[in-house]
Design goal:
67% helix; 12 helices; 212 residues; mainly alpha; single chain; 0% strand
Amino acid sequence: MIKCLVNSRFAENCASPDEKSDALMVVHLYLCSTRAETNQMQRASWFLLDLCCRELVNRRQLCIDTRSQASACPSLGVMQRKLIQSASSSEELLSVFADVNRTFYTSSTTKEEVSRHLYSDHEMDWFAIEAYNRGVNLTFLGDLYNAERLITFALNFLPYCSDEVKSHGPEMRHAYRGVIERKDNSTRSLAVCSSSTVRLFGGLGGAADGKC
């Protein structure tokens, strides 16, 4: 119901004659999300922020246009991290990771250029770590379908990460193979241990726990 209400109001605002520019619309989405969060409307805040991020992804923008009086607004990467941390379902979580992943496949420029312009190395490390860790966690809950998708995202992000995270590529690919094998044979044990998330990225400090 909340999602329908948010989308309805979003469409209404887009059609409003007072809307001067698309950039201003993105600013309004962000400010409305902030206001909803202040008023404890967490779900409405999440959906508005998600719409804001999707608009930025579609426009290939790193952040909200500062000329639209939004110089204090966070970057695309920071907002997407917030969405991931506050997602209330696997569907919401996967939709944000899919948007991050989409930035590498919807541009005529090279993937390296897209990564360099949209996300910092630290942000790419965080996305890869978070997708992998959550994927491993889902395997122990028996949700192998979504676990496979999350670890796939992590492997897609891996080429744009720091050397420290890249060095764990073999372990990540081993975990992915374990999920595939377990899907093929539900009685087979997953080939990762329960402490994988702590051990694998334990040395990254803030990048692993979501701190900027």
